[in-house]
Structure formats: structure tokens, C-alpha cells
């Protein structure tokens, strides 16, 4: 539910959020108007297409909205409600779509040709809705002040309840706030006590008063209350005077602000304490382990409920859970953390991703490479990795009195391929690409499913070109990036152009040319973007592209950069540094040796991370063309098993991923197929064997009727080719 392992939600919010989420999936949910006491069961209700929607905001990195719609149509038939929970992400979070037009079958599947049940006509109408957009710290100073003050209120509450607790720091963060304490470990029950004390402090409407004191006075006060961490913080503050914020006359903290005027400006029903975790003081594992309490705070209760629903939906889509449920991948303790095992179904999806990626690259003039996973350590010294990146590299190994190193990046290998012969200016551009596996050392505590691993495969490519070819090549990378991402259902991006930082390599002229080339390519493409002045890497300007998933979260997978030195993880950049380090050249029209421009780029970032994003984007409900199993053939009884096997063989012969499941009653076979998120089920009974047909059930469209096998195959092929469902 909404309870974290080391956190809690209030009893009212637990019950309410659980009821809203459960009933919204059934298509009939009451919302509350006003406070808990004013709940009216006849008040506005949530429509069948879901309780909340996500909405993109120009000024924020993540936004989502709570629907307050008109009353919905009558409760849908049970079979339709069953299918509702299988809506695709675009349907679940878009207010103008609903399940009214879908044809969903009943749960009694004893007859393969059972007719579909249509939704009531009213359910097909769009609801007019009032959108409550969740603000961010950047878009709402009021929210930022609320969150910052909540951190102080929480610290005050903790020290009231646990006088021995020592305070450290308590900032606002993206979705709320936290505070670190030096104290005994806390439990869920402790957090509930803290929240109740916070509520009491808020209800007292205590003023927050800013005071300026001298450094000596601040030291005197800190020593009086015996707060050693605050003394260390004070020593790190360079400027005078020192500012202190008081909550009433009972508690104070070193702080620069800002805060709300009084605690009464905080809506206590819009606050939840989420979890408690361990955190080292100053992030140093050699220092004290502190207790960090995380909380979330919003301007009103509706925003909190929208956020909690978003969290629950994100939890439902967690790629680690889905990966286990669908048997897609695993990380085996016996092998070590951060090392991914792709299971057969996950490997099929990876194969499709790789095959799509390769076809597009070959069509756009790239040559494919395969290079070693290990090389002499001297190679990484030449590239600069041992100087700048050593902490992220695995230890070297001794082989016949020489040092070898697992590769953390692919760039030096591609340069060696370029250097194998002398090139003429007529050869450019030269484009090479590789799905190259790299290895990077990560602390075990930082590993996270497929998103943070120690071994992963980058979709790496390098373009060697002339200065006057930069713009066209960058534009080509933009087009390629768009083509690949659209294939996988990502059409919304956030684009940023980062320019020269204060410390950089390369002369001003080449930086200016590279930056202008990136700008011109973006303008030519017609993409809107924001400029991050001085935000580029020291080796070159870059374009960062973040894709937006079904929940409105943004993931960085692609960057395009004109790199003047060392490459990063996700990028496409122009590099002036590595060509110099490896002394690569070409012969120009005047028979002189010149140094080429080198563009680094990765579209997906890594296959592992991108697969994790895909899983969460689709919540494991992969589209038909991408699903590891496209059709599951189900016999009504085992007497139809031979025919089912023949159907499956014919499907496979036509390139359709199919399997036969039997040995259970048909309703259970169907339920199991639904749990495995299989897009299509071909049900076979005695009548289907006699007529040489199958009765098709679609996970997204319900009953499709009885089809001849050839017709079924043709429709699947057409749907896959057009990237549509059946």
C-alpha cells in the first residue's frame, strides 16, 4: 500500500487513499469535498478512466493533476471493470480517454465465443474536469517556504519528544523535506508520534522570527544547548552576521530561510512523514550514522492525495517488482551486485531493442563495431580515464606482467579503429556505432535495479567529421534520436543546450563554432530548448535530451555534445580532447595533416537503464510488437492440445512469438495469461478445432471473435508493422 517499510501515512489517509485507489480502478470512486467530517457520499465522483491525470507543465520538471469531475455514469459491468485496470498508460492518465469504447469480455470464459459486453453510452462521453496542478519548489515560493518550515517544525517536534536527539540539517527537497538527527533508530510508531506533535505545533500558530546575531553570540547559544553538529555548521558559514530562525520562543535553528510567517500557514492535513533512513553525517561513511526522516508537504490536501496516488502508481510500475513478476531479469547475489542477468523473456525484448537500433543506424550510414571488454591499462592512461575517472573503474588485473583494465567506456576503442589507417578529408563523415558493454565501479549502497548497475551496455556511437560538417551531423543525430525514441513510444522531450563553462579546454573559436552548430541544428529541427549558460562540460558544449514517461517523469537517456575532452555517461558531444590525446589526423585538400572533430553520442544511454524505463513506462504491458510473448494459445481441454501446438508452430513460423499453456481450467489459464500481461490469447475449443479457427481475446480490446489462423497471423503482422494493438 502506501506504507513504506520505515515510514507511515496517517490512518485517515491510509484508509482514504486505499479506498480511492481501489475504487477508482473499479471505475466508481467517491471524492471528499472539504474536510473528513464534511464527506458526502453523493458528492462529485471520479470517472472510470482513473482518479488522477498527469499534465506536462512548461515551468516544472514533473507535474500531475487531480481530477475533480462531474458525476460519472453508472457502475460498469464487472467484466468491463476487470479490463479497466489493463488500460495503457496513455489511457490511464489522459482525461479525454475512457474504457467506454473498449470491448471487454466477461469473467466466465467457459465458452470461447462468448459475446463482448459494451459499455453504457454515457461512459463514452468525455468529462469536463477541473485540474489541480501540483506546483514545484521552482514554480511556487509558498510551497518552498512551507516545506522548509515543515523541516524545522519536525525537528522541534522530535526534540520535544526525544530531548537527547541532536539536530544537524533539514533542507527542502523536490517533493518535501527531511531532517537528520543523531539519535536512536526510529520506528513507524515513533514517526506517528512525531507527526502528532507536529500537528500540535502547527495548530498553535507560532510565529517564525528571523534574528541576526554575531558569530560569537551564535557560538554561545549553540554551546548552551549542546548541539555539536550546529557548531560544525556554524564554522562552515563564511559570512556574517549569522541568521537564526525562531519558532515562537521555544526552538531555534541556524538558517538563512525562507519560511512562512507562522506555523498556522501550514495545512497539517497536507503533510505526511514518509520514511526514515540512515545517513552519514556530511555523507562521510567514517562519520556518525544519523537518522534521516523524510516528509512530504503540499499547499492543500488535494495536492497531497494526488502526490500519494502518483507514488502508489510509481510503486505499481517499479521495474524491479515487474521484472520479477514477469521473469524478465534478475540480479543474483551469488554473482554480485549490479550485474544483470537477462532471462529469456527479457532477452527477447533486448533483442528487439538491439535489432531496431541497429537497423536504424545502418540505414543512416553507421558502420557497426564489436570491440574487446578489456584492454591494457596504458590505453586508459592515454585517454585520461585513469587521471579523471579512476574512482569509477574496477581494479586492474595482472596478465603476463602487464596491467589490464576492464573498460569503463568505448571511446578509446573506436579511436583505435579510426587510427588503423590514414584518412583523407574525402572520407568524412565517418560514423561508427557499437552496443558495447562497459564496467564501472559503484558503491553497493548506490545500486538500484536496472537504473544503477556495475555492468551495462551503452548504445555508443562516434562521428569523425570536419568543422563545417558539425551542424549537419548533429541534425542527423537529432533525427536519429527522434526516430528511435518514437519507435518505443516516447514523443515528449525536454531539451537543454549547455554552453562553455568557466574552466574549459579548447580555444574560443572552436567552442563558438561548436556551440553555434548545436544551436543551428536545434533551430533547424524545430525543437524548443532552454540554454544553460556555462553548464557544458569542460570538453565541449552539449545537448541533453530527457524523455517523459507515462507518469510525467523525465529520464535522461540522450545527450548530444560537441566534446572538447573526456566523455560522460549519456551524451552526444563534439570532442576536441581525445583526438588530440590519441593524435588522430586526416589529410586535407592541401595535403596537410589536420585533426578531425569527434562527436560522441548515445541515444538510449544504456540498454539496462532504458529497459527499466520501458518497463515502468508501460507498467510491464508492452505493446504487441515489443511483448516477449505475443500470443498464448489456450485449449479448453487437453483434447485440443495437438491442434494448439500446430497453431503455435504456424505462428512461430511467421515470426510471431507464441506459446501453448494447458493443464488448468480455461478461466485460470486466462487469468494467468492476464497476469503475465500477454497481449493476445487464442482460445481453442472443439468448435475451433472442427472449423480450423481460433477465438481471440485481446488484453486491451477484449473479445475479437473467431478468426481463421491465416487471418489471425495477418492481423498480428499488420499490427506489429504499424506499431498498433490488436
From TrEMBL:
UniProt cross-references to InterPro entries, sorted A to Z: aa-tRNA-synt_IIb (IPR002314), aa-tRNA-synth_II (IPR006195), aa-tRNA-synth_II/BPL/LPL (IPR045864), Anticodon-bd (IPR004154), Anticodon-bd_dom_sf (IPR036621), Thr-tRNA-ligase_IIa (IPR002320), Thr/Ala-tRNA-synth_IIc_edit (IPR018163), ThrRS_anticodon (IPR047246)
Source taxon at top rank: Eukaryota
Entry keyword set: Aminoacyl-tRNA synthetase, ATP-binding, Ligase, Metal-binding, Nucleotide-binding, Protein biosynthesis, Zinc
Any Pfam family the entry gives: tRNA_SAD
EC number(s) recorded for this UniProt protein: 6.1.1.3
GO MF annotations in UniProt: ATP binding; metal ion binding; threonine-tRNA ligase activity
GO cellular component: chloroplast stroma
Domain Aminoacyl-transfer RNA synthetases class-II family profile stretches: 318-623
One GO term of the biological process aspect: threonyl-tRNA aminoacylation
Spans through the membrane: none
Catalysed reactions listed for this entry: tRNA(Thr) + L-threonine + ATP = L-threonyl-tRNA(Thr) + AMP + diphosphate + H(+)
NCBIfam families with a match to the protein in the record: thrS (TIGR00418)
Family: Belongs to the class-II aminoacyl-tRNA synthetase family.
PANTHER family named among the record's database cross-references: THREONINE--TRNA LIGASE, CHLOROPLASTIC_MITOCHONDRIAL 2, THREONINE-TRNA LIGASE
Protein name, as recorded: threonine--tRNA ligase
